[in-house]
C-alpha cells in the first residue's frame, strides 16, 4: 500500500481551506463540491475521493476547533481555583478565535452547519461544557447576557471588516481585555 | 380598483413572518418560495403574487430594521453632546435587538443576505453611519474591538438559547448594562 501520504495530506488540507473560504462566502447550503473543485482547479472526483459528502467536509473543517475546545475544557476542569479557571477559559476562547478567524463566524452564523455538528461531532457538547464552566452554578440574568454577548461577539469578530487591519497580537490583546471586562 | 386592502396587507405580513422563520431555520439560500407557501398552507402563486423574487422578500423582511436604523442615526446626529449621543445610540441598538430578536441574527449570520442588502436597501449604509458615530474620530484598536464584540454580541443574543427564557424587559436592561460597560 505505497500511497503518496504526504501529497494526499496536502490535497486534503487544500480542499479544506477552499471549503472554508467558500462556506464563509456563500454559506454551507450555497456551496457545492463542484464549486470547491473549481476553486482548486481540480476534477470533482478528486474532492469526492477525499470527502464523499459535504457533511463529511463540514466535520473535517471544524475538527481543529472540536479538538481545541475539548482540550481547553479538560484543562479548565482540572483547575480548582475559580479565578484561575476563568482566566484559562477566557484566554483559550480568545486564542481560538484569533487562530481560526474565519471558522468561528462560519460555525456561528450558518444555519446549515448546526445540524451536521450535532449529528457527527462532539463540538456542541464541548461548547456546552465550556458554557457551563463559564456560567458557574445558578447564573444571574446579567451573567447570562454577558456570556451571550461575549460569545457572539468573539465568534463574529474574526471576520468583522472593522478589525480586518488589526495584527493578530493586537486583536488577541484587545479581545482578552474586552472579555475580562465583561466577565470579571 | 376595489382591492381587499386589509386582507392583502394581512397576507403580506403572514408571508413575511413565515419567510423570517424559515430564513432563521435554513438560511436564505436554503429557503424557497415553495417552502414559504407550504408553511402557510397557501399556493405558491399567492406568495409569488406579493413577492416575485426571494430578493424582494429579503428586502421586505429587513425594511423595519432599515427604517429603525435610519431614524436612530438621524436622531443621534442631531445631538451635540457626545455622552448623550452615545446613550441614544446604545439604547436604540438594544431596543432594535429586543424588538427584532430573530431578524438581527438572520441579518448578521447569513452569507446570502449581505449582497441583497447592498444591492437593494439602504441598510448597510445606515449601519455604517451608526458605526462611524459610535467610533468617533480616530478610534483606538481597543475601541474598534469593543464595538465589534458589542455589535456581534447584540446581533446574536436575540436568538441565543441561553437567553431564550429571559423576558424582554430583563433582556433589554441587561443588554444595555453590558453595552454601557463595553462602551463607556
Automatic annotation (TrEMBL), chains A, B:
Top-level taxonomic group: Bacteria
Record's keyword terms, sorted: DNA-binding, Transcription, Transcription regulation
Keyword ATP-binding tagged: no
Pfam families, A to Z: TetR_N (PF00440)
DNA-binding region location: 32-51
Domain named HTH tetR-type: residues: 9-69
Name the record gives this protein: AcrR family transcriptional regulator
